[in-house]
Predict the structure.
Amino acid sequence: MTPQAERRDIGLLAAGTLVSVAGDSAAMVALLLELRTSGVGWISAALGAELLPFVLLASFSGRLVDRVDNRRLLVIALAGQALVAVPLAFARTPWLIVALFFALNAISTMVRPAVSAMVPAISGEDSATTAFTWIATGGGIGWIIGPAMGGLLDSAFGFTTTLCVDAASFVLIAVACRMLSLTRRPDPDAAEPDQPVHGGMRIIWRDTVLRWSMLTTTIAITCAVVDNVAAPFRFINQLGTTSAGFGIYLAVWGVGGLAGSQLPRRLSASTMPTTLAIGNGLSGLGIFGIGLAPSLGVALAASVVGGIGNGIANVSQSALVASRVAPDERGRAFASVGATIQTGIGVGTVAGAPIVAAIGAGHAMTAAGGLAAVLAAATAGWMVTRGSG
């Protein structure tokens, strides 16, 4: 395939990621607002419906991605998401909303690892980090505009319209995937027929660098999720800003993430383990700084640092998995990495509330960020010492 076709395909995937993330985050805002009147229990159930499918279905989804044509799988899965999003748009009872939202995310467990596994197949192994940068850029922009779009759409037109827009976004992305010039197909000669087919966690665990990188990344993300719980109280109750100031914090973190995601593409694949550790460390330092900040300005400056680290980590994590896992095993590996991270998000979310209640928002962020930074620094030092090999 020509370089122009490769760039076109990566551009299609990046644009599709932007539309997907923006549509999904807009829909999430509308969904939580819809469930708000039914009580906090249903909001918790919706958050669980967002996380649990990636943990429960990782093995099935990863194996499926490694066994079928990935372009065809993406088209079918995205069309399926559109079909689920339409009845979700018209659902009104809380249990039905949560059930359909679970189904929507169950299909997404196939989409995310398929996209990640497709990237090196399209760009080539040597250009995979740059390609992952474009995917992360699309996702970063989507996360910035999506929640605001969701709030505006829900306020102006209501829950049904916002979810219908999300359904339309799935159709658009399915069309974009159908236009891809190249796909990723299983290689019948990649594995010996008498050899067992390993699951994603086994694939990750057998590689020492990948094992420790993913373990420390999961811990860092678990700590970062405590920040999500603590940040509203930190910025509004302790730093004395308003909801607008809190919104600025979210935007600043997102802009930092966009900037950080551009940095790993200038580095070689062999440096990705150390780069991932540095990204996790900067993210932890940002949270640590927010917890200690004496003023809103200092907290926002720390948010930039944390966002940059978050962006570095997002790209280098994908590039690291792609560089250390065989092409025919990447679907399982990416699905298991996603499941591990979602588990960390769930643990951090559950732990965040009692930690904030016990020691306060500022101290919670200082402790969580400091722990993440120390672990990341230790991992980075170990990677440098052993040469990341």
